[in-house]
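Could you join me in thinking about how sequence relates to backbone shape in a protein? Would you write everything just below, so we can both look at the same thing?
***
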Amino acid sequence: MLIKRDGYKKAILFPPFCLLIVAWILVGCVTTSENRTVAEAPVPASIQGIGTRSLAGGMTRVEVVNSKSAPFTAFKLNDPSRVVLDIRGLPGAALPAVIPVNDGNITTIRVERGKAQTTTTRVVVELARALDFETDGSGSVIGLTLKPQQTVRGAQGYRARPEGTEPRVHFKPGTVGLTKVTGIGIQMMDRGKSRLSIATEGRALYDLERKGPKTLVLTLEGAEVSPQLLKSIDGSSMHGAVDRISPTFSTAENRLSLAIFLREMVPFHLDQTDQGIHIDFGPLSLNQPEKRPIAMAASMGGGMGSASPQIIAGGSGQGQSAIPGLKRGKYRGPNMTMDFVNAEVTNVLRLIGEVSNLNIVWGPEVKGKVSMRLRDVPWEQALDLILANNDLGKREEGNIIWVAPKSKIAQIEKEEKRRRRELEAARKKRMEEQKEREKEAQALQPLITEYIPVDFADAEKDILPHIDKIKTDRGSISVDSRTNTIIMTDIASVIQKAKDIVKEFDTPVKQIMIEARIVDASDNFIRDLGIRWNKLEGQRRGNSSTSFGLPPDATTFTKGGDVLGGGSFSTNAPGSWTPNIGLSFGRLTSSMLGALTLDAALALAETEGKTKTISAPKVIAREGTSATISSGDSIIIPATENVASTTLDATLSLTVTPTAVSVNDYITLDVEVTDDQAPTNTRILKKSITTTLMVKSGETVVIGGIYRENEGYDETGAPYLKDIPLLGWLFKAEEKTSSKSELLIFLTPTVLPPPGKTL
């Protein structure tokens, strides 16, 4: 240190320990300053202002001024149309929450604090019309340019976005105004009735049409339905009116069509409530024991409540897609258009959660980046693509989706399967222990002997196989065939079960009385009309000594120049034509030298006949056995020189075999009916019918009918003369015939009551 005094510079030296103290103080000050800088947290950017200005071409420029550069994400939402900027920063104190614009493109700009991250601010630009947008960032200013929509195509289609540009996300309009269909099912009701239920959230506009003899089509307008419900529903496991249901859905028109195929057209009634549409069908004409359907849960995040119908699962599964991790078939949710380059997976999951209105949960192990360009893809399919691309999986329960690495999900599922196997093994073990305890209890019970008579069934063939399955190891069983009695030695509980089996199966075989009505009716008509000339003869003589008669030999003439002249003619008629009026005219000349003879037959007749024959055979048969009844003659045709003697049967017979009788007294019959008539010289007339049919007891059915009609017309007369109007009837004869015959066979089967009971 230099000090100037009295014009001289003098050096003053400090002691060494003083220098050390000064150096220590300086180093301490520097260290404290560095530690304070490291401990301070980074200050987020502050949004100081938002401005707009109009550009040429109908475009609008929005600029967000920040205190420093801030990362951001931009995407577009519809319904209503808006562009959202999520900026990593906080709104300034002077920044208004709502900024009105109204320039034709923008109506309002709203500023909101981030919901998921407290250091994020959301700027929502509400659009007055559909627009495209572009973003850019220059220092502390974020630019958003809105311009009219246009499609940009290159040689290879849509151009890909260049690396490093901001991502864009577009969402189609939501499902506002659509009725959600949450379930489709078939349910059996009392007395053979069935119900088709379509569960909805609210009332839907519907239309029901009949498309065929056994087909109905139910159409729901403005509907939204899960792809899981668009599978064919098979109702064959239940004996109701509905055989199967084939649903189809038009995405463009939001129309759900259900083609309802019925076993038979039965009466039905449709009713609609706020919870759905119900169609109640009447019972079938042939009811069978009902079967329990297989239940399948309703989808789309809503059940059908406690009153929901049983859903019949039909069709094959959705299967696997060609892209690993994707499924075949339709995906749910509104379509999305996304354009990302190196975006964080968690940010994309957050956007999908916002669109789907579902809760998406992920852990710290979910990380990675994704680049994609998707256009009009359902959000569920986009989620599967993102998960498959990053080796992630999901599990969904209700409205919560849990995302985790596939290895972790596989480990959890493996653990769940292990627990299920352990529970199943424990259940089986408990059942085995219960059986062992029951066996031990049975071993301590005393044996008793019981004689169980069987009235109708065959004890050895029909009853013994059923009882033999329930007897214990200590028990024994035998049959006395003479009295048809079962002799059983076992514990009391098993013997009681054996008695119940005998009571259930020892029932009389049903007997069926079959009444037949064979009606053979005929109707014939014959009309003969016309004239037949039998003889028209004229003679004239030249000598009075020559007599009339047959032309004599020329030697009978006694005088030269004797002449005998004359001749005759006649007309024909149809072969079976029968005259009923005869005419004969004769005239002799005044000189007694000539004669004229006219002989004619006139037919004016009609014949009409009707015949009706009724045959009524009746027979009683047991179920499974045949019965025959016949009545008639056997015609013996004598032997001739070259043909041996033959016997022909002209009988009326009924042969019937009741093959099955249902619990509702519907009878299945094999029927053969013959009605042969005695042969004539030229033909043998046979009538028969053989068929298998099903008919309810006491009802009459026509099992066959033969209708025959013949018409004939025959005309004979002199050529040309018969065609003269009016006068032609003098030279012709005609015959007209007509015959009709009809054979009908009616059958009425009746199930007879068991012995001791009456109808």
